[in-house]
Design brief:
Strand order of the largest sheet: 1-5-4-6-9-8-7
Strand content: 5-15%
Radius of gyration: 17 Å
Largest sheet: 7 strands, mixed
CATH topology: Uracil-DNA Glycosylase, subunit E
Order of helices and strands: HEEEHEHHHEHHEHEEEH
Shape: globular
Number of strands: 9
Number of domains: 1
Number of helices: 9
CATH class: Alpha Beta
CATH architecture: 3-Layer(aba) Sandwich
Length: 252
């Protein structure tokens, strides 16, 4: 499927459907919008960083490698538009750009490494890219869509049975959203294979395992990375990055 030219209008219509179903199912009326990340100006207001819409749709259409990041849900009690996220620490002051959350630091490193390697070019070593002044500006402009499988606000954790129930209840809506981006690389973060299996069952039935981290669809040539959650504490940031990029590069 080719990405709709007005992708944000498509997203917003889909979220209207999501909200109506959420109310019918007793899951509440709050929906955290997500999708193609805004690439307009940054704004700092009342202690909070946000990103404004920009030319992200055109950038996505012409990008040689488009990355879709699939995460479980929003770790917050209130819904907000994830498309406007910056990863920057709030209440830091407009002159201080700080990336402190492991979730964002790992995502930014992973995206930098993935988009800086190819069959003939080894991925950059962790020590070479473990610099905010390198990975953060790159991530700020990279073609990225970020989608939560569960749109309702959540908390610090989402049990797998709950995630499975939401994947079932909103199966068609989530599949339509994922399919609309036509991403070259789908990065599944956490969920103990549930997110990866959802993609295979609904969109890429010919997905083949290449190694412990990497799957590929021969028909669409899309690559799926089955990763840990970016906040995973069972490995160091260095080992997470190196393991993911080693597996990715070996599968190219």
């Amino acid at each position: 499927m080719k990405t709709p030219p007005d992708i944000h209008a498509f997203e917003n219509r889909l979220f209207d459907e999501w909200q109506r179903r959420s109310l019918r199912c007793g899951d509440g009326g709050e929906i955290a919008y997500d999708g193609l990340l805004y690439r307009g100006a940054f704004a700092y207001d009342s202690g909070y960083w946000i990103r404004l819409p920009g030319n992200e749709a055109a950038g996505w259409q012409h990008a040689p490698q488009r990355i879709l990041i699939l995460t479980k849900d929003l770790n917050d009690t209130e819904a907000w538009d994830i498309r406007a996220e910056t990863g920057r620490q709030n209440h830091s002051g407009a002159d201080h750009i700080l990336i402190t959350a492991p979730f964002y630091k790992n995502l930014m490193r992973w995206v930098y490494g993935i988009l800086h390697t190819s069959p003939g070019i080894p991925f950059p070593a962790f020590d070479a890219i473990n610099r905010q002044d390198l990975y953060q500006p790159f991530y700020d402009h990279a073609p990225i869509a970020r989608v939560n499988c569960k749109k309702q606000p959540g908390g610090a954790s989402l049990p797998n049975p709950t995630l499975r129930a939401f994947l079932t209840r909103y199966r068609d809506l989530l599949a339509r959203q994922i399919n609309a981006y036509d991403a070259h690389i789908i990065l599944c973060c956490g969920g103990s294979d549930l997110i990866k299996d959802f993609v295979r069952e609904t969109l890429l039935p010919d997905l083949r395992r290449i190694n412990d981290w990497i799957y590929r669809s021969p028909s669409t040539r899309q690559t799926l990375i089955n990763s840990y959650h970016p906040s995973y504490r069972g490995m160091t940031h260095r080992d997470l990055y190196t393991s993911l990029l080693t597996a990715y590069h070996s599968a190219l």
